[in-house]
Design brief:
387 residues, alpha/beta, 18 helices, 9 strands, 13% strand, binds pentane-1,5-diamine
């Protein structure tokens, strides 16, 4: 073998070793850091993330910890109605990178092309999610391609136990908790200590339809008319329509009965204890079932920071991060790995983490079409004005 051939062979070995090292480090990168691999092709995103979520729905350090860890600056805005979020989404250019609609709205938005598909390769914590919840979500997000649950709960009746007992006098609490907001025998007595309803057509009609034993999401115009007639009977007894404000109204003793979200009723209970207002608040679990909902994270189609959005969603799917939110806001999360980090008091609260029997009774998430939603809004406006 002459020297130059030896040199040539040596060169070949060096070149292939370098090539192997390069291709190995590239494939390592693809496996461990897919986000980097995809961003390589485009200009890196500015370190900004705009989030639009429900009020009272996050732990005090969730955002601060994320910012510290990633250097991404978060603008976090809140709403308390799906109608408000929906109006922004259909007008486009919301400026948001993550929004959190409820299941019965998300499907319509998804079908309308308002969201972008998740890049599951970037969501390495996906494995922590509860299979049962993913299956429920597949009913409105086939294949779980667009949405990740933030928290879940159910619509029900919340009461201030002592005030309600006092207002009812000799009349015992009803077997069916829904009677407290839909049966004039009870509402006429409870109006003295203050009844509030959520201020949103969909949730109000869902409950009225459920109380009447009619289809909650797929009713005919005749079903909605019957629900309207029922609502009008209790209308004179309703003090106030508000959604986000129910927590403080209950915690301060301003109201004694509310139709709303179980999670918020438990939060009102917690807030009353923290603020020492001594109101005994309870989320009731109706015998005929509550109405299950999921509030889901989605990335708008025109989001400017989708990579940062994925980083945030993946962060939320960490067991400790989502458990801290549950511990703060008393809503159940969709993360099976998080349960061990949830405070025992919350884990054992049967109106937050429902028994299997009570879960089976919940009305599963569904979707009303746009026409039905318009009809509800028309009837709801009449109901609210009371004429
Ligand atoms: C949280 C409100 C949850 C909203 N405070 C229900 N979709």
């Amino acid at each position: 073998m002459n020297l130059s051939y030896k040199k040539y062979l040596f060169g070949l070995v060096v070149v292939s070793a370098v090539l192997a090292a390069v291709s190995c480090s590239k494939s390592d990168q693809e496996v461990t850091d897919p986000a980097k691999a995809t961003t390589e092709a485009k200009a890196p995103e500015e370190k900004v993330l705009n989030i639009y979520n429900w009020s009272d729905y996050i732990a005090p350090d969730t955002i601060a910890n994320f910012e510290k860890e990633t250097g991404i600056k978060v603008q976090y805005d809140v709403f308390d109605s799906n109608e408000i979020l929906h109006a922004k989404l259909i007008a486009k250019n919301t400026g948001y990178d993550i929004v959190v609609p409820t299941s019965n709205w998300a499907k319509q938005q998804l079908d309308g092309g308002l969201f972008q598909k998740l890049d599951k390769g970037k969501l390495t914590n996906w494995k922590n999610l509860d299979e049962g919840i993913l299956k429920q979500m597949a009913a409105f997000d086939p294949g779980n391609q667009y949405l990740v649950d933030w928290m879940w709960s159910y619509n029900t009746v919340g009461i201030n136990v002592d005030k309600v007992k006092a207002a009812l006098g000799d009349t015992p609490l009803p077997e069916n908790a829904w009677d407290l907001v839909f049966n004039p025998t009870y509402t006429s007595k409870l109006k003295s200590c203050g009844i509030t309803f959520l201020d949103t057509p969909t949730d109000v009609f869902q409950a009225a339809l459920h109380y009447l034993g009619r289809p909650v999401y797929t009713g005919t115009p005749e079903d909605y008319q019957a629900a309207f007639d029922l609502l009008m009977k209790v209308r004179p007894d309703i003090k106030k329509f508000n959604s986000g404000g129910q927590i403080d109204d209950l915690a301060s003793g301003n109201t004694c009965v509310a139709y709303g979200w179980a999670g918020d009723f438990n939060l009102a209970r917690k807030r009353s204890i923290e603020n020492k207002t001594e109101q005994n608040i309870e989320a009731l679990v109706p015998k005929t079932g509550g109405i299950l909902f999921m509030d889901v994270m989605a990335i708008p189609a025109d989001a400017k920071h989708p990579d940062n959005a994925h980083t945030f969603i993946n962060y939320i799917m960490r067991p400790e991060v989502t458990a801290a939110i549950t511990n703060e806001v008393t809503y159940a999360n969709p993360n099976k790995a998080a349960t061990e980090f949830v405070d025992p008091e919350i884990k054992n609260n049967k109106s937050i983490y429902l028994s299997d029997e009570d879960i089976a009774k919940l009305v599963p998430p569904g979707v009303e079409d746009a026409q039905t939603k318009r009809n509800m809004t028309r009837l709801y406006t009449k109901f609210k004005s009371g004429v």
